Fold this sequence. Notes:
Structural class: mainly beta
Number of helices: 0
Amino acid sequence: VSQSRYPTVNTKIKxxxxxxxxxxxxxxxxPTCVTVSFYDKTKKKVGYSKSNSVTGKYxxxxxxxxxxxTIKIESMDYIPDSYDVILPIVEEYTVFEKNxxxxxRSN
Length: 107
């Protein structure tokens, strides 16, 4: 009987998912840079991303399927906004897509 040189570790890998999309200016329809933050039901920030100023793309991973999140969109140049989502339950790593349009602040 041969024994492995590596100990058996009894850990369960938890499935996570991601959300990504593009943030655009509501007026110009051009991509823009904002902070996209995810908060869990206890109001703890669990992930965030700055959208790319050229492409508008953001990506947040490490989210849990079946969980409730509040997504907050924030920037000095845009009116803050928030969205509530419940991520679908899935059996494998999935990237969900959610695009946002943001309203510029008045000067």
